[in-house]
Amino acid sequence: MRGNLFAVAVDLVILTVRRDQLNVLLVRRGERPYESHWALPGGFVRADEDLGDTAARELAAQTGAATQGAVQGHLEQLSGYAAPDRDPRGRVLSMGYLALLPDVPDPEPTGGPSAAFLPVEDVYGLAFDHDTILADGVERARAKLEYTTLAAAFCPPEFTVTDLRRVYEAVWRTEIDPRNFQRKVTSTPGFLIPTATRVTGGRGRPPQLFRRGPATALHPPMLREPVSVAHA
Amino acid sequence: MRGNLFAVAVDLVILTVRRDQLNVLLVRRGERPYESHWALPGGFVRADEDLGDTAARELAAQTGAATQGAVQGHLEQLSGYAAPDRDPRGRVLSMGYLALLPDVPDPEPTGGPSAAFLPVEDVYGLAFDHDTILADGVERARAKLEYTTLAAAFCPPEFTVTDLRRVYEAVWRTEIDPRNFQRKVTSTPGFLIPTATRVTGGRGRPPQLFRRGPATALHPPMLREPVSVAHA
DNA sequence: ACCCGATAGCATCACACCGACGAGAAGGCG
DNA sequence: CGCCTTCTCGTCGGTGTGATGCTATCGGGT
Fold first, then answer.
1. B55 part of contact set with chain A, CB < 8 Å
2. E strand or H helix that includes residue A131
3. Which residue of A117, B5, B111, B135 could cross-link A5, Cys pair, CB 3.0 to 4.6 Å?
4. Could you tell me which of A93, A110, A119 has the C-alpha nearest to residue A22?
């Protein structure tokens, strides 16, 4: 069997919506290279693991096993990164993974390296090629909100239409008309399941609470921009 | 640096449309394991290569450097596959790549292992986990025809609207109304650029010849099925 | 008690797009 | 010439969406 040997790592783009902003979980590196730089959380694939196993293990380690039930969240593979010089220690291939989580109370794992959710707009200068991986992950998340029901992965088990709309607005950095948005999501079969309860205590008319429905796709999709594609 | 070491390979899903059928390029293995089984073409990543370099090199090797100009074709990364037992020789991670080509004259490379385009419908029992990689590649291609102009990658430099429609019909295994299809593709700015020439010699009214335009996205997308998404 | 602002949710209208379909344009062939 | 085939343009109705108005129902201030 020819070919060089690689160390294989998994790097996670863990996104959540916090205070109406898209945030990514970063860790501060405690060792060289890139010591004290921010980086995506990740780790090497163990002997008995497939890539998804490693990603799930790292996700649980970073966010606490509680949120890892994955009923609510979402985890999917992004791309592979293997430029010859991407890691000065040697040949390392990294598989990017994208995780979407509800806004968890706070992500500081005990004892580990310092970790924090930071708004993606403020992030740059990450270790290795993590800026690229992060950009790919954010773009994937933005694209998937268009044609899937994945936005609900950012929400707690029960949520309102307004909660869901704020997810879209935060991820896309746009404003969406509340009335048209409500028509769209409530008229898509299987997207939202109404619960018996309503929310009280806020201002205004109490909203209906929903749970995620079984639908995964949005047909037709919700388009970010009525963008004119190209010039003839 | 912890972690096991992997051999890293690239496996190609090379698709083309031939005789109104979606075909994939396969090679017959000449060595163990899976000797004499069909497999996706591929190879190991060399010391100075990034993943895309390896994919481009293998694509050129399989199809001849002629078609490899890639102006016409298309090459993109699929997923990574690294199940611990996917290769009996040891730990191997394979990056899938998807290539779309016009129907080349014939792909038999000199001296190499026997290679052939086979209709994807007839393919099963490939070596390793290549059935999975192939399925992922075909599904990616089908999905991308919906919201990109990538179908033109299956066509020669100049082609008619009917050629393009047959690509969609072959990849999706559906029938499309020629009149509505023509309206859709010709009214999308930047998708098709008319040339001065027309085709003569066939039956019926001579069609207009087009080249690919600069557009890459289709807004709104062309939907495969008015599928009812889910049950409430 | 009353009004007011705020949010939720429903209704309406115009427009764009699409599927179904008709019909004309422009070639080959007997 | 008639007839077939295929390309191309048009029409009609249904659906989905953006823009917008209106109503429902709460908290809070006076």
1. no
2. helix A130-147
3. B5
4. A119
